[in-house]
Amino acid sequence: MPGVPPGRYGYLGPAGTFTEAALRTIRDRGEHVPFASVAAALDGVRDGDVEAALIPFENSVEGSVPAALDDLATGDPLQITREVLLPVSFALLGRTGTAREDVRTVATHPHAQAQCRRWLADVLPAASVVLSPSTADAARSVRDGVYDAAISAPVAAEHYGLQVLAKDVHDTDGAVTRFVLVGRPGQPPAPTGADRTTVVAFIAEDHPGALLQLLTEFAVRGVNLTRIESRPTGRGLGSYCFSVDCEGHVADARVGEALSALRRVCADVRFLGSYPRADAVAPAVAPGTADDDFRAAAAWLDRLRG
Amino acid sequence: MPGVPPGRYGYLGPAGTFTEAALRTIRDRGEHVPFASVAAALDGVRDGDVEAALIPFENSVEGSVPAALDDLATGDPLQITREVLLPVSFALLGRTGTAREDVRTVATHPHAQAQCRRWLADVLPAASVVLSPSTADAARSVRDGVYDAAISAPVAAEHYGLQVLAKDVHDTDGAVTRFVLVGRPGQPPAPTGADRTTVVAFIAEDHPGALLQLLTEFAVRGVNLTRIESRPTGRGLGSYCFSVDCEGHVADARVGEALSALRRVCADVRFLGSYPRADAVAPAVAPGTADDDFRAAAAWLDRLRG
Amino acid sequence: MPGVPPGRYGYLGPAGTFTEAALRTIRDRGEHVPFASVAAALDGVRDGDVEAALIPFENSVEGSVPAALDDLATGDPLQITREVLLPVSFALLGRTGTAREDVRTVATHPHAQAQCRRWLADVLPAASVVLSPSTADAARSVRDGVYDAAISAPVAAEHYGLQVLAKDVHDTDGAVTRFVLVGRPGQPPAPTGADRTTVVAFIAEDHPGALLQLLTEFAVRGVNLTRIESRPTGRGLGSYCFSVDCEGHVADARVGEALSALRRVCADVRFLGSYPRADAVAPAVAPGTADDDFRAAAAWLDRLRG
Amino acid sequence: MPGVPPGRYGYLGPAGTFTEAALRTIRDRGEHVPFASVAAALDGVRDGDVEAALIPFENSVEGSVPAALDDLATGDPLQITREVLLPVSFALLGRTGTAREDVRTVATHPHAQAQCRRWLADVLPAASVVLSPSTADAARSVRDGVYDAAISAPVAAEHYGLQVLAKDVHDTDGAVTRFVLVGRPGQPPAPTGADRTTVVAFIAEDHPGALLQLLTEFAVRGVNLTRIESRPTGRGLGSYCFSVDCEGHVADARVGEALSALRRVCADVRFLGSYPRADAVAPAVAPGTADDDFRAAAAWLDRLRG
User: Fold this and answer.
1) CB B56 within 8 A of CB B177
2) Are residues B145 and B71 located together in one domain of the fold?
3) In what order do the strands lie in the sheet with D240-247?
4) Judgement on whether residues B7 and B45 belong to the same structural domain of the protein
């Protein structure tokens, strides 16, 4: 798109959120532009205000993942080109000189609070928790002297000149949150051998076999799903779409044939991108489903057809 | 549980949220207790502080639905006994005497903002939007004179003594948000003929056919799914559970046999309840899957076995 | 094959059988060569002795259909190019001057006897039945004065100079027997819109899902099966192949993709031909499985891949 | 049935066939009654003339297996209680004093001829082959001096006072033929842990998913099929039934639930028996499908239902 400044990236803001921290892990240069909501960030991409935007996509601590799914499913087409995984691990931030035992009020986002409830009960049992619209807002309010401490992304310390009073704050070990970088539609990044593909399938009709048929199109071709979420389409009772992540790249024969099959049997299919997996896990390729197998079978079929 | 005051219900607060409005539609008497998070509300049920709690469960405008799913899937067992559907429709609230054209600042929750972006751009193009941790917080800040107006649940007007400057505020017609009433485990409410059942299935092993097998257990018995969401279990790479809603009641033969089958083939299954559908839609019962069909087939089998 | 006399066709003999009658319905000129067994007839094709051979293939009144299936599955490759359906309807044949009430001995093939038992009991209760290796042999023995009458194909009357004492002899109305014309491998006849395709699939491994996977490859692409028979392969315990007829032609996109899929996931697949259905019944093409749907989906996929 | 002489068994005759040999392996006492056809033998059971009858059922060298399947599927109900496997191995029989090199004419049944063609070409290239309605008839004609030798079941030597000129006559190693003992309906024999169950399922409607649904009922419960054959029902175009053998016994929970499911979703199901496998191979029981798993799941379901 002419006029889009290259290297200008949007993210779910404000500055100091986990999404900004995630963006820094993949784009350490360029301009990073906070948006007030996922929808606003995606519209920023659509409008050419930014080249791409990073948004929370699964298991998020901030932002509405269902809303992100729906916007990508039904708004003007966009495409995912990259994913980022971040451990769900907060920091307790305070102004310089604050001792942990002096903390009486802790600001944080409701989702973050939910993930640190036991920690707060154990470590700061006497503190009262105040909710903020984002973990970054919480940090800002601490900087402004409104509250004593914030449960925020560690990156917020730097933004708001705060000190880390505790790190690795969370109730559950091993949780990660996943972000995706969304740009305008185009050719997907080249396959790496450890890719993921995201699509939204709108089923034509709701009946006990409809979802099964959809998943069978993947399974019969040896394509493993890594996420599935049904979403009401708003087109009326019993009308659903399915937001699905599968292993592999649209350039893989098995993935391509599965997507084509969805395209044939579904009311609509929206391709949301093929991109490298952040965890670099290569799929187990079932016997008979490698590209070579598809090539050999196609050659055999050509011979049969004469 | 001894000592639990009957008629004391929790909800995702604060007062004036959509969840409170939803709770009012089913419990017009008794005490309604706001909790700061879904997790806190559910713990309030577990601890016997409240009899049950209403939480957002699907397509919510506030609160983290993924976190609710995870808490119900892996926390101490609870059970859903009822569901509520509310249209996603906000009100613009201001102090008495405020004219819509005087509104310069609008407070709201990020999810609500995302759902009213076009409305705000059309109707209040010059107003600046400020984010709050809940739509009720937004209303309170208007009452306190901090901002001119709030995008909130209509119920907040009453709580905070505000005036409705505009109603039916939303970008998409027909969207609804779904809440569930969660109590301690017990016998499910009696079947009504239009019921829903919620379960969480933990697959034993991740491979291309695992999810398909799970869904086949439902489909082969004519049980339609109305929601499915995969959730990482935190037990390591490629370990998922599936949170599923299906049509019908655990007392129905087809649903019972399907759940038993899941129980046999999954690593674990958690039953989260059978309860009346808020929309009272009765399922289409496929040929051969009614209770009478199961009874007749069981009698036939008994005769074969001699 | 050089030297094969065109228009020379084999069939399961001897002259005067149903198979000869079936051959006459499709090849009224040329030379018709009887073979003593299906295996001999097929070897006649392989050796270039005949251009093609007609053999019973389903629901036969003479000849071993299982043996035919096995020979086609594991012998040197051959290809079906045509099918013929004949009603299962016999004639009672006698020498000129024989009255039906004078018949004391009736010769016939065991399969024919099985299909006329009630008729014989009703019409010729006093006659004794003598078994012959074919219905044509039965007729010949009548001509030779050995027995009074034969239950044979009507065509045998002409061959052996016999008179029809009764026609439409059979116990069950509507039964048909199916024959296939088998030639050397080559380009299949052009699609007619009402075709059938025959393949043999050797599964790689015997487990509860193996056959299901095989059939899923057809079903998921909307290809209906019209015959399936498992056959032990003789390669050891639990080793099977499946002889399958499906609707459609290898040139159809849905059939071609299904066959390619079998080729990928099975230990071996043998294509036995695509040919016009004798009953000219066109398949019901499920939504999304017509050639145009495949073409449109392939074009869409090409666009995605960039 | 009153008046049926115990220990009186029918078989597909005449005396000296493979079926008689098979019957001797399981019933060495009692009276053995030959019938001229499978249909006659089965009617002998229905009429109370014999207690049970042994008939060829799969891969037979004599008799029409398809006709047997159809008779069992649609005639008055009968039940299989036992199976017998015999290797497909013939003997060359001659009168005493005949030398193999003097054999000029060989009589045999067409199916037997098909299975010994290479052997005949190698060992008796100059002999001419004459077809008989059964391998026992062939032996009798040799005894009567009509032909020099017969390819028959070894048991025929004893019946007709013939000498074995060659044994182990066959083209393919390892082929077996399978017989079933059929009686009147009753309680199946007790499970042995290595059983087989035979049923006929009449599908309600012919469409691409009908057969798949039927097989899914087995697969989803971990029940492996060991034979499947589609048969036209004669009820009109596109109307099929499926004759199926599966591993396990109707008393097994997984088999019982699968049969019940067929009963619910099919137009009709005919149970043809559960009986010990002749090869004594116990099934691999998939995780979650043992009787204990069904019991535990049923107990869990009972608890859920309260």
Assistant:
1) yes
2) no
3) C268-276, C195-202, C240-247, C225-232, D225-232, D240-247, D195-202, D268-276
4) yes
Q: How many CB atoms lie within 10 A of CB C101?
A: 10
pLDDT value, residue C150: 97
Q: Tell me which chains share at least 3 CB pairs under 8 Å with chain C.
A: A, D
pLDDT of residue D2: 46
Domains contained in chain A, number: 3
Angle between helix axes D291-305 and D253-265 (nearest 10 degrees) is: 70
Give the phi and the psi of residue D171 in degrees, each rounded to 5: -90, -30
> Which candidate from D220, D287, D293 shows the least CB-CB separation from B220?
D220
* Pair A257, A230 in one domain: yes
**Does residue D218 contact residue D246 with C-beta atoms inside 8 Å?**
yes
Whole-number pLDDT of residue D240: 82
Phi-psi region of B288 (alpha: psi -120 to 50; beta: other; left: phi over 0): left
Residue-level pLDDT at A238: 63
pLDDT confidence of residue B206: 64
B242 and B304 together in one domain: yes
Question: Does B201 reach chain D within 8 Å, measured CB to CB?
Answer: no
Beta bridge partners, D242, equal D201, D230
In single-letter form, the type of residue at position B141 comes to: S
Residue-wise pLDDT for A250-306, tens only, equals: 999 999 999 999 999 999 999 999 999 999 999 989 999 999 999 999 999 999 998
Lowest mean pLDDT across A118-122, C293-297, D203-207, D239-243: D203-207
Structure token pair of residue B188? 């499910």
pTM (2 d.p.): 0.93
**What pLDDT does residue D62 have?**
73
Of the three residues C169, C202, C224, the one that is the final residue of a domain is: C169
Q: Is B280 on the interface with A (CB under 8 A)?
A: no
Average pLDDT, integer, range B262-279? 96
**Shortest Cα–Cα distance, B198 to chain D (Å):** 12
- Cα distance between residue B185 and residue B188, in whole Å: 8
Same domain, A182 and A146: no
* Contact across the interface for D297 and B213, Cβ inside 8 Å: no
Cβ–Cβ of B37/A234 closer than 8 Å? no
CATH number reported for the structural domain that contains residue A303 in this entry: 3.30.70.260
Query: Is C251 near chain A, with CB under 8 Å?
Result: yes
Order of strands across the sheet that contains B128-131: B128-131, B105-108, B149-152, B90-94, B163-169
pLDDT at A206: 64
ipTM attached to this prediction: 0.93
Decide which of A59 and D78 is more confident: D78
Range of the domain at C144: 90-169
Element (H, E) at B180: strand B176-183
**DSSP state letters, A85-116:** EEE--EEEEE-TT--GGG--EEEE-HHHHHHS
Is residue D9, in this structure, part of any structural domain at all? yes
Q: Same domain, yes or no, for A223 and A81?
A: no
Chain C contact probe: residue of D137, D207, D215 with most C CBs at under 10 A: D215
Cite the beta strand spans of chain C per DSSP E.
8-12, 31-35, 52-58, 79-87, 90-94, 105-108, 128-131, 149-152, 163-169, 176-183, 195-202, 225-232, 240-247, 268-276
Rounded Cα gap, residues B212 and A220, in angstroms: 10
Nearest chain D residue (CA) to B217: D220
What average pLDDT score do residues A201-217 get? 82
Query: Residue C2: pLDDT above 50?
Result: no
B62 and B10: one domain?
A: yes
Question: What is the pLDDT averaged over residues D198-211?
Answer: 82
Contacting B residues, span 34-53, partner chain A, CB-CB under 8 Å: 36-40, 43
What pLDDT, in 10s, does the model give residues B209-237?
A: 788 889 999 999 999 999 999 988 766 55
| Interchain contact, C212 vs D219, CB within 8 Å | yes
Q: Decide if pLDDT at A249 tops 70.
A: yes
∠ CA(C171), CA(C172), CA(C175), 5° rounding?
130
